[in-house]
Amino acid sequence: MTEAPAWVTIGVYGFTEPAFFEALQQAGVDAFCDIRWRRGVRGSEYAFVNSARLQRRLAELGIRYRHFRELAPAPELRRRQTQADAAAGILKRQRTVLGETFVAGYEEQNLRGFDSGAFLAQLPEETVVVALFCVERDAAACHRSLLAARLERDLGVRVKHLVPGPAAA
Asked: What are 82-97's pLDDT values in tens digits?
């Protein structure tokens, strides 16, 4: 890459379908990194981010799609976060931060051997803006914030977190 790309993160909760894709376009995203384990969301409200449908729409917009399952938390780690949420009386979509057990587990399982430079090298050379995608509304409540922090530290970049505006909620 001639110049380092810009980085953003985005979740789907809180976005309408038009607002989600508009946010990507306004940010200038041309490479979309799906970092979910399962590439689907239950229910019709967010069906537009189920893998096949999402990839078709991104292709229509000229945004390249890549799936990085190795950057998704394993089901057991997600179960531990669910248990911590339940113990705190918090519903998943109400969570604003990740639990310490989840953070430690994700750093050990997913980021210990992670090479930011090698990750960057997997993206097309002409990439201008990269989006890291998972489902949570707030980046701090999602593993994408941990990956973003690692990229910021390793690559010296700033990662912007895209969030739904009042009209998108």
From this structure: 998 888 888 777 888 8
